[in-house]
Amino acid sequence: MPPCWRAAFADALTLRWLDEDLLVFNALSGDTHLLTASGSALLQGLLESPARAWKTPELARHLLSEEPSDTLLDQMQRSLNYLWQLGLIERVAS
User: Fold this and answer.
1) Can you tell which superkingdom this protein's organism belongs to (predicted)?
2) For the chain, which domains are there?
3) How far is 20 from 35, CA to CA, in rounded Å?
4) Tens-of-pLDDT digits for all 94 residues of the chain?
């Protein structure tokens, strides 16, 4: 079963825009990351309601206000896995 995602570490993240990219500092790890527009849109979507766990299709519909294609869902899933590997979001059981 696919995981759900949430921004459990929202209080530890400091965000700053650099042109179209988002600089993210994680106080828990001490790491700084530079996210592109698509990565920053996903992170910000999760940060809007940090306690809520989102399935990828639900998050896509929330961000796009339309039904996402399978290709877009695959891309989002890869991006969410990347944000998780960076320690910016949390994976939870669905």
Assistant:
1) Bacteria
2) 4-89 (1.10.10)
3) 9
4) 678 999 978 999 999 999 889 999 999 999 999 999 999 999 999 999 888 999 999 999 999 988 999 999 999 999 999 999 999 999 998 7
